[in-house]
Structures are given as C-alpha cells and as structure tokens.
Amino acid sequence: MADIPDDESWKDWFERYGPKLLLCARQWTRSLADAEDVVQEGFVRFWRHQRQLGGEPQALLFTSVRRAAFDLARRNARRSDREERSDGGGDGAEALFETPLAGDDRRQVIEAALRRLPAEQREVLTLKIWGDLTFEQIAIQLGISPNTAASRYRYALGALRDVLTPADCHG
Known about the structure:
The protein is mainly α. It has 2 domains: 1-94, Rna Polymerase Sigma Factor, Chain: A; 99-171, Arc Repressor Mutant, subunit A (Orthogonal Bundle). The protein is built from 8 helices and no strands. The chain has helices at residues 10-28, 32-48, 57-87, 105-116, 119-129, 135-142, 146-163, 166-170. Helix 5 crosses helix 7. The longest helix is centred in the middle third of the chain and has 31 residues, at 57-87. It starts with 9 loop residues before the first helix and ends with a helix.
C-alpha cells in the first residue's frame, strides 16, 4: 500500500484504522479520553500533511498518532511539574486498557507486566501488535535497524512469558 487512492475519503481511513489507532494510543496515554484525543489529533495531522510525503501511509499514520501521544505526554509532564511545585500533586496513573472488567485481577496482572517492560520494548510491541507494522516499518519510524526492532519485540515477548502464566492471559 504505497499511496492512498484518490477515491478513498478520510472517513474510510478512519473507519478502517481508528480501532487499531485507539489501541496503540491507549498504550501511550493515561486514559481512554486522552487516547481518543491523540488519535483524532494524529489522524488530522496525517491527513493534512504526512499522507503526501510518500512511503507507507499506514506506518506514517501510526507514527503521527505516536507523536501526538508523546506531545501530550510532554504537555502533561510540564503541567504535573507545575502542579507538584504548587501543591504536591498526585499519582494520576490510570489503567492501560479500558475493559468491562475494570476490577479484573487478570487485567491488572497484564498491565503490571506491560508497565515493567522497558519503554523501547513496549513501544515496538505496541507498533507490531496493535499497529500491525512490519519490523522494517517500525525500524524506519523509530530510527533503528529492523534487527533491533525484531530483537526488542522478542525480548518483550520473552519478558512477558517470564512473568505471566497462561491463567493470567486466558482467565
């Protein structure tokens, strides 16, 4: 998929990629509301500017959302720093996944395991699984080699296997 056909609208693209983008954004944000905002912002950036750059549109789309998430994280970090200086601040950590089983122990175990992964591994895992990107596409987006992307993915899966039991993942 090298180019976006002229007859495809942004609505078609959003319908096709929106759910995957939201799952990815959810890994980089503190709440579902933030993830939704990030997807919207990243998608608009992509549709207005990046889709004309050439290359792999799907990879550019996920990178646009990733950058929007990091921009939000920087803004939140600056705000938190200001708030902590003024009143001590709070934790603010929220669940990584929004599920109907909000109190589910299994979800909490999986989230804890994901949080323990190094950021580089978690990012590759997210782009590979939820972004459905190839290691080549991940490498280009992160400025690393495809072998490094593949290694980080393998290390992340190995680390998750070490801490999660089949019961943790399947109930």
